[in-house]
Design brief:
The protein has 109 residues and is α/β, with parallel strands linked by helices. It has one domain (22-108). It is 31% helix and 13% strand. It is built from four helices and three strands. Strands 1-2-3 form a three-stranded parallel beta sheet, sandwiched between helices. Helix 3 links the parallel strand 2 (64-68) and strand 3 (93-96).
Amino acid sequence: MSDIIVNKVAESGLISFNIEDYYPKGTIATFDLKDYLFMGLILKEKDFRAALLTTDWTSYQDKYVAITCTADAIIPMWANMLVASYLYPVAKDVVFGNEQQLITIVLTK
C-alpha cells in the first residue's frame, strides 16, 4: 500500500515548450488590396502604382504584415510583389495571405 506515484512523463525525456514563446511578438497589420481596386473589380496598374507612391509606409514600421484582398477580384501576382517591395524595408515580416496564415508562417520559421 505504500506505492509511490512516479511521473513517467517527466522522466521520459520529452521536451515540452510553450507555444506562446514562438508567437509573433509585435503588432500584426493587414494590407488590403481591396482599397486600390477600380470600381471594386479590377486593378488599374497606373493608378495602383501612383497610389502606392503616396502611401505612408511608416505606419507598418516593425509590424508583421499580411497582404490580402478581401474583395472577390482576381489580383495579378505582380501587385502583391510590388506591395511587398515597399513593405520589406520597414516591416518585420511580410506574408501573402490573411492574418491567420501570417501567424502560421511566423510560427513555423
